[in-house]
Specification:
The protein is of the alpha/beta class and 615 residues long. It has 19 helices and 14 strands. Strand 13 and strand 14 form a beta hairpin. Helix 1 runs antiparallel to helix 3, helix 3 runs antiparallel to helix 4 and helix 15 runs parallel beside helix 16.
Length: 615
């Protein structure tokens, strides 16, 4: 065997070749999600991707290869270096593959929120993979490692026969030029406001581009000013803005039934007969939108009356909802139940932080549909034994309609054909969604049966005449309705991921249908004013409006996702990415490159996002 020193050039050449090969593989994987039919006519976009994408993965590959490089310089036997490199390169290529699949379905990359869900245990509580899916994942992992081993062995043998097969210095100089050129193009495009190039960063996972707008401006480069929205981050809160002045002669009970992924068209006599019948005697808001396309932001907006952009600030200060705080002052009993755990996302440290001891999560050893039944039956029991004279707040979150759409054992679905399970790996632009959609409708149908039981208990109790009831969803659920390969939620701000039923039963209020645009932000102002007797201007504690006051025909709505912020403004949706750019699409998500975000809508949204921050 060669000495360690004499074999170092071959080891460096071998490791360099493995990095280059995997960078090319990662580039091809990520490129599979790029709509080249849309970028083919924009040469700047193609030129940018040709440099930025491989440069990005060359950097990642080199970072992941560093431990193997150290081992190769310290250990005589090259098998240790090869083994370390194969394991680490397999891991990061596997991560790129997983990210590409997630991005294809939901249009966001694996990020810190996903990691929080995985390591916090919430992902396993909310997403269930079928045995077939696990088998495919295991097979893909084995195939990836085998491919890496074959490539590693073959490349080592090539270098044994032809030691000069790779010019290391030339290779690394070329890689460096590609990396620097990609970042330089990014900095220039950002400074000039060139959305043709900057918008391509959305296709590059974990991109952290260099921006030099101020520096370039100082040396005479004309820089662009884009429409941007502020981030609330960890700034201090001024929430509420003024002390609450509330004095209800007779506070009303409030019950919130929140259904996971409940889309607007599920509220019909076939899918939700109980909720439909209840809606006929209630306030029914037909153009209602959640504050986000994920549970985190939808539930947050509903219970605070604020945009989801305040999530991080509220979490940092563990500041609960002003509505819950006022209910405490009014001596409300608290009955809070989650089928999915209400600690991930951290609703126990945000919405319900003042009453976290009252949260009851369904036992994790129960099947998902059985958890839903558990929380409904607990709230039924609370209503049956609740004493008259003390107001109460009831909250129940039903998780069954979350993918893969959970049903109790033996449940007979009226919707056929129905998928036995959901294989996320089979979903794609040409996939017939009917079986999965029917499974989703069956899960919602089961939720409606449980809602019917709860309503029956309430209506047959002495509390019914003094109880406000809301039935709604945290967000909606898409089944490729736009024919753009969007599935589930977290992917876009269209009606299919944001628009949800909003049935509000209010004692003494006649039934009506409202066609104007409303938002989850409007629930808190309505409850505060009409159930809790708060005399403050609603702007003191919320950004929504009173649903029993004048409702504008249209208004801009701030909406939030894991990777994007948006403004829905009539027939237009403005998309703000993490790089400070704004794109405009219509309600069908057709790009409108010649249009710009409305300055007035941006101004109003800016004010809402800064209203409760300390100045």
């Amino acid at each position: 065997m060669d000495s360690l020193a004499s074999s170092l050039p071959r080891r460096n050449a071998w490791l360099t070749g493995l990095i280059l090969g995997n960078a090319l593989l990662a580039t091809l994987i990520a490129a599979s999600n790029i709509p080249f039919d849309e970028t083919a006519t924009r040469w700047r976009a193609l030129a940018f991707l040709a440099l930025a994408l491989p440069g990005h993965f060359l950097f990642f590959g080199a970072v992941m290869a560093l431990p193997a490089w150290v081992v190769g310089r310290l250990v005589r036997d090259p098998r240790w270096m090869i083994g370390t490199a194969v394991v680490l390169q397999s891991l990061w290529i596997g991560l790129v593959l997983a990210d590409a699949q997630v991005f294809a379905l939901y249009r966001f990359h694996l990020n810190a929120m996903v990691a929080n869900m995985i390591f916090g245990g919430a992902l396993s509580d909310q997403v269930t993979f079928s045995a077939d899916m696990w088998a495919v994942i295991a097979l893909a992992a084995v195939a990836l490692v085998a491919l890496q081993l074959l490539a590693a062995r073959g490349w080592w043998l090539v270098l044994e026969r032809r030691p000069g097969a790779l010019r290391i210095r030339r290779a690394w100089w070329a890689a460096l030029v590609i990396c620097v050129a990609g970042q330089a193009m990014t900095a220039w495009a950002d400074a000039r406001g060139d959305r043709t190039m900057i918008s391509q960063l959305a296709y590059i996972p974990w991109a952290q581009p260099i921006t030099l707008k101020d520096t370039l401006h100082k040396i005479g480069v004309q820089t662009a000013t884009a429409a941007e929205l502020p981030g609330t981050g960890d700034s201090g809160l001024a929430y509420p803005r003024r002390p609450l002045q509330c004095d209800a002669a007779k506070p009303l009970n409030v019950v919130v039934v929140l259904v996971e992924s409940l889309r607007f068209d599920a509220l019909d006599p076939q899918v939700m007969p109980n909720a439909w019948a209840y809606a006929q005697q209630s306030q029914r808001f037909d153009n209602h939108y959640s504050t986000g396309n994920a549970t985190r932001f939808g539930l947050f907006g509903l219970m605070y009356g604020l945009p989801g952009g305040y999530w991080q600030a509220m979490l940092v200060e563990q500041r609960g909802s002003a509505m819950i705080e006022q209910m405490q002052r009014a001596n409300y009993a608290m009955h809070i139940y989650g089928s999915a755990p209400l600690y991930s996302p951290e609703f126990d440290r945000t919405v319900f932080s003042q009453v976290r001891g009252k949260i009851v999560n369904a036992p994790s050893d129960l099947a998902r549909a059985d958890r839903d039944r558990f929380v409904i039956e607990r709230l039924q029991a609370d209503i049956q034994r609740h004493p008259q004279g003390q107001p109460f707040f009831g909250f129940v979150f039903l998780d069954g309609p979350h993918a893969p759409y959970h049903l109790p054992e033996g449940f007979v679905s009226p919707f056929q054909p129905m998928a036995k399970d959901v294989n996320f790996l089979k979903l794609g632009p040409d996939h017939d969604s009917t079986p999965e959609f029917n499974r989703y409708r069956a899960a919602v149908h089961y939720s409606d049966q449980l809602i019917g039981q709860l309503l029956h208990t309430l209506e047959n109790s002495p509390l019914a005449d003094d109880t406000v009831v809301l039935i709604s969803g945290d967000h909606a659920e898409e089944f490729n309705d736009l024919h753009r390969n969007y599935w589930g939620h977290n992917g876009n701000f269209s009606d299919y991921q944001l628009r949800t039923p909003f049935v509000l039963h209010w004692p003494g209020k006649p039934a009506r249908r409202v066609s104007e645009v409303t938002s989850h932000e409007d629930f808190v102002p309505t409850v505060m004013r009409h159930a809790l007797g708060c005399r403050n201007d609603t702007a003191d504690y919320a950004t929504g409006i009173d649903l029993f006051g004048p409702i504008p025909a249209t208004r801009p709505l701030l909406v939030e996702s894991w990777s994007q912020r948006g403004i829905r403004n009539g027939e237009r949706i403005y998309l703000f990415d993490q790089f400070g750019g704004a794109d405009v699409v219509d309600r069908r998500y057709e790009p409108l490159p010649k249009e710009e975000a409305s300055p007035e809508a941006v101004r109003l949204s800016w004010e809402q996002l800064t209203r409760f921050m300390k100045r």
